[in-house]
Amino acid sequence: MVLIEPHPTDEHQNQQEEEKETTKATSVSSLPSETTTGNPATAAASANATGGDAASDGFETASERDVSDSEEDDRARDQQKGPDSYQDALNDDELKEKALSQANDAKMEGNKLFRNGQYEEALLQYEIALQVTAEMPSASEIRSICHSNCAVCFMKLETIKECSKALELNPSYIKALVRRGEVHEKLERFEEAIADMKKILELDPANDQARRTIRRLEPLAAEKREKMKEEMIGKLKELGNSVLGRFGMSVDNFKAVKDPNTGSYSISFQR
C-alpha cells in the first residue's frame, strides 16, 4: 500500500478558505438588524426610547415626583380648606349678626332707661352693647351712639360727685345743692332730692323754687316707697311659698294688715 501525503500547498489553501468563511460569518453577524437598517440615528433613537421605557418602568423621575406630590398636596388642601372655610365664614357671619342684634337691644333698653332718668341702669346697658360689638367695624354706628350716651350718663352721675365735693368744702353753697338736687330727681332719687331742697330752705327760707320742688317731689317719693314695699312683699311671698309649700300651705294663709296710724304692717294667720 502506498500512502499519499497531502501536499503542503493544498493544506495551506484549505486553511485560507476556512479563515475566509469564518470572517464572512463574523461580518454577517455584525450587520445591524432590520429595524435599524440603514439609519444609525433611528437606531440610536430606538435605543434611547427602549432605555427610557425600561428606566421609567416602576420609577418616577425627580420632576415627575415633585409635580405629583405638589398636585396631591394642593388637592388635599383644597378639599380640607374649602368646606371648613365656608362653614367658618357662615359661623362668623352668624355670630356678628347675633352680636349686632344683642347690641341693638341693649342700646334700645339703655335709651328707655336714659329717658326715665335712670342713668346708672342706662349706663350698664350701653356698656353691654359696647362689649358685645368690640372690634366690629360694622357696628361703628351703634358704638358711637352708645359712647355718646355714656358720656351724658357719666356727666349726670359725675355732677352728684362733684357737687358733693363742693358742699364738703362749702356746705352753704346753694348752687351746688340745686344742681345736685336736680340730678337726684332725674335719677328718681326723690328722697335725696327733697333733702337737698330742704337744706336750701334752711339757708334761704324765702326760696320759693325749693319749696315748690319739695311739694312736687313728696308724692313721687311716697309712691316710690309704696312700690318698693310691694316689690319687697312680692319677693318675700315667693320665698314663703317655696318654703310653706312643703307643708301644704302658702302665704295666702297669712294676711298683712297695714296700720293707718304708723304705716307698719301686722301679719295674721288664716286657714
Automatic annotation (TrEMBL):
<dbReference type="Pfam" id="PF07719">
    <property type="entry name" value="TPR_2"/>
</dbReference>
<dbReference type="InterPro" id="IPR019734">
    <property type="entry name" value="TPR_rpt"/>
</dbReference>
<dbReference type="InterPro" id="IPR011990">
    <property type="entry name" value="TPR-like_helical_dom_sf"/>
</dbReference>
<feature type="compositionally biased region" description="Polar residues">
    <location>
        <begin position="25"/>
        <end position="34"/>
    </location>
</feature>
<dbReference type="InterPro" id="IPR013105">
    <property type="entry name" value="TPR_2"/>
</dbReference>
<feature type="repeat" description="TPR">
    <location>
        <begin position="174"/>
        <end position="207"/>
    </location>
</feature>
<protein>
    <submittedName>
        <fullName>NAD(P)-binding Rossmann-fold superfamily protein</fullName>
    </submittedName>
</protein>
<feature type="compositionally biased region" description="Basic and acidic residues">
    <location>
        <begin position="7"/>
        <end position="23"/>
    </location>
</feature>
<feature type="region of interest" description="Disordered">
    <location>
        <begin position="1"/>
        <end position="92"/>
    </location>
</feature>
<keyword id="KW-0677">Repeat</keyword>
<feature type="compositionally biased region" description="Basic and acidic residues">
    <location>
        <begin position="62"/>
        <end position="81"/>
    </location>
</feature>
<keyword id="KW-0802">TPR repeat</keyword>
<feature type="compositionally biased region" description="Low complexity">
    <location>
        <begin position="35"/>
        <end position="58"/>
    </location>
</feature>
<dbReference type="InterPro" id="IPR052769">
    <property type="entry name" value="TPR_domain_protein"/>
</dbReference>
